[in-house]
Design brief:
92 residues; mainly alpha; 2 domains; two-stranded parallel sheet; 6 helices; flat
Length: 92
């Protein structure tokens, strides 16, 4: 399993609210909202003003987190995914 090394220690299960720890117990990649929640929490903790995302996919993460950051930089190498992300969040 690709993510087993990250979740096997139980570190994240202790740090995240119980409502999302199920994703860690399944040892699969968590759904997008878990990643967005973690980014949001870390941005508040460390007072981040900019977000850099690589592998933007469809642009859901920058679209949902745009209100929390002054600047968002996204990188997507696949042309089709880049165009899909541009449709979701053209202002980013």
């Amino acid at each position: 399993m690709r993510y087993s090394w990250l979740f096997s220690s139980g570190y994240w299960a202790k740090k995240l609210p119980n409502s999302i720890s199920w994703a860690l117990r399944l040892r699969t990649a968590p759904p997008p909202w878990v990643k967005q929640y973690v980014i949001w929490r870390l941005s508040r903790k460390y007072r981040c003003e900019a977000l850099v995302e690589t592998g933007t996919f469809r642009g859901d993460t920058p679209y949902r987190l745009k209100v929390f950051f002054k600047e968002i930089f996204t990188i997507e190498l696949d042309k089709n995914l880049f165009e899909a992300a541009t449709e979701v969040a053209p202002e980013i």
